[in-house]
Amino acid sequence: LQRDAKGQYLFDLLCHHLNLLEKDYFGIRFVDPDKQRHWLEFTKSVVKQMRAQPPFTMCFRVKFYPTDPAALKEEITRYLVFLQIKRDLYHGRLLCKTSDAALLAAYILQAEIGDYDPGKHPEGYSSKFQFFPKHSEKLERKIAEIHKSELSGQTPATSELNFLRKAQTLETYGVDPHPCKDVSGNAAFLAFTPFGFVVLQGNKRVHFIKWNEVTKMKFEGKTFYLYVSQKEEKKIVLTYFAPTPEACKHLWKCGIENQAFYKLEKSSQVRTVSSSNLFFKGSRFRYSGRVAKEVMESSAKIKREPPEIHRAGLVPSRSCPSITHGPRLSSVPRTRRRAVHISIMEGLESLRDSAHSTPVRSASHGDAFAAPGRSGRAESSERVAVIADENYSPADSVLPTPVAEHSLELMLLSRQANGAPCSIEEEKESEAGTPAAAEAEEAGGELRALCPGAGGLGAAQAEQVNKFVLSVLRLLLVTVGLLFVLLLLLIVLTESDLDTAFFRDIRQTPEFEQFHYQYFCPLRRWFACKVRAVVSLLIDT
């Protein structure tokens, strides 16, 4: 990749490799050394956006969820959206009841392994898939029952289409949650969907605001403001607090992009947005892509032969692996599975207060899940975490995204303990980013242990200096502009023949007459004398 290559070049290269035309729904995500997620900006250099050292680890993700995924023109697009939603289901972002969860998982089974075959699929075959953050044997039996009796004969494409249609009806379809706190200090998750702005607390949606009701979004430091104008001219300002200023800025930029994509009629209506009312203060950002209506119109014009989809040839999703990749946690004995889950959660506890914008388990949820394992291991083995009939929380995800290095090791060790091979593709897919060679890992391990995050320290300081310099330059520019406007006004007052009431009143004041005769006229004569001297000097030479 050339050093000055823009993000658009990399994205187009990737979409060409995937044979993808309906590419406006997707984006490239990366994580900085502070575990903060970012979307790659297509108008900027790729290298300049990366604060880490190469090699860079980036992930292809759905950035704007289609309003109606079943209406997508090409099967390859629907398949990629299916993979993303399947991943959302596994990470606990797609909230659903047990009945809906069983149906969605059954669609995934049908797409992955086809029709039920007693000779190939023994008792408990559905347990070899990890569809959700938590499983129960009752749920696994329900999944297998639906797969056996209701989905026979469906092709992978049909199962994926039915999966998308069902997922679209759920309240949290398209949710990419950002952890925040409200004004009372209560934990909340903010998200932007195809239909509007959503606030989740616990397992409930406490706010839903349509895009046409959102009038403005801005942030100051860690504080995010959402201005809402509802019916009867009722205006509301929602205030939330992000973990870090960087997380708040990321939240603000995601909101600006989602509102522009789903709300506007044309991309020509997109305007540069400032996070502050003052010109020389705050961040400025502009969405650079097409809007949803333009994307749908463009998709309708696609007339090529549908590209062939090699489902088995793509890298298996870490979220829902194929059966051939060995048993998952749910396939081992209940007591052993319980211990492995507890060990993973103990490793993830240090991430609870991370600035990462993907929700990890909060203190309340984490304690509720891990405490029974610590204090009551002698209790009945039937007490395992399951998806209840009510919605489960995004904070219940066992695998936050991206996986930190130490938690990834715990996950891989637990899989090895259960007899599951750890594929190279899964390690590469980790968003935390690891060195390419084992030698580099060993050589740099001690240095990284002594200086965590040092790779991006200089870049962070340089970025802060650049922001300060830009603020000073904006302030100087505004000051010079104001002085220039005042000078023009002064010249009009003293030299022009305009006789409006406004100018006449100013000219008749004693202060203006004193300024005109004692200061302005001598200054004008001095300036004219200097100009004549310079002109005569130029003529003589």
UniProtKB/TrEMBL annotation:
Region feature (Disordered): 353-380
Spans traversing the lipid bilayer: 472-494
RNA-binding as UniProt keyword: no
Cellular localisation: Cell junction, Adherens junction
Gene3D superfamilies: 1.20.80.10, Phosphatidylinositol 3-kinase Catalytic Subunit, Chain A, domain 1, Pleckstrin-homology domain (PH domain)/Phosphotyrosine-binding domain (PTB)
Keywords: Cell junction, Membrane, Phosphoprotein, Transmembrane, Transmembrane helix
Residue ranges annotated for the FERM domain, each copy included: 1-266
Record GO biological process: actomyosin structure organization
One cellular component term from this protein's GO annotations in UniProt: adherens junction
InterPro entries (UniProt xref): Band_41_domain (IPR019749), FA (IPR014847), FERM/acyl-CoA-bd_prot_sf (IPR014352), FERM_2 (IPR035963), FERM_central (IPR019748), FERM_CS (IPR019747), FERM_domain (IPR000299), FERM_N (IPR018979)
Function per UniProt: May be involved in regulation of cell migration. May regulate cell-matrix interactions via its interaction with ITGB5 and modifying ITGB5 cytoplasmic tail interactions such as with FERMT2 and TLN1. May regulate ROCK1 kinase activity possibly involved in regulation of actin stress fiber formation.
Protein name listed in UniProt: FERM domain-containing protein 5
Protein species of origin: Dromas ardeola
Recorded name of the encoding gene: Frmd5
